[in-house]
């Protein structure tokens, strides 16, 4: 790994050893000028394709657009104003959606979980390719759903920005620069795992 690549890594204070593809993954708001091709995207989608899902129903649906395309602009138009401020430099935008019902028309309680597994698999493949994945809750799901013609039994969940790690920090506002430089943190494993009954760790911390 060269010096430039090292500069793109964020320190991840893990307590147990994990794979570098997971440890070094993070969600930047700036991206290198390196383009992402349709072939690159197909590698990412192929990784997501093999995610596990309930009864192998594969409820995920992905709308994608490369910067400069009409689809990119249509996705962009449904992002929150906060996300529009920084995502303008992203080479690719995605919308993630899922089918809420089973083939029999019943509620598929696990569909959102399965979409998450698709994106997780895609994110690991992206990390392997030096591509950053930044998921966004700030999207108008109902307007995006209508814009792209999804039937009633579908729900738009998130938007996703894709781009190679890199880019100029000066492209960001001062507040976002601080967030980009901030140290990473997560709850300890003991906070969310239980060998027995659930315990509200937040209550114990008071």
Structure description:
- This protein starts with a helix and ends with a helix.
- The longest helix is centred in the middle third of the chain and has 18 residues, at 111-128.
- The protein has a single domain, classed as 3-Layer(aba) Sandwich (NADH Oxidase).
- It has helices at 3-7, 20-23, 38-49, 70-76, 81-87, 111-128, 141-147, 174-181, 189-192, 201-205; strands at 60-66, 92-99, 131-136, 154-164.
- By secondary structure, it is of the alpha+beta class.
- Pfam families: Nitroreductase (PF00881).
- It comes from Gangjinia marincola.
CATH architecture term: 3-Layer(aba) Sandwich
Q: For the record, what is the CATH homologous superfamily label?
A: NADH Oxidase
Overall average residue pLDDT: 92
What count of helical segments does DSSP give?
Answer: 10
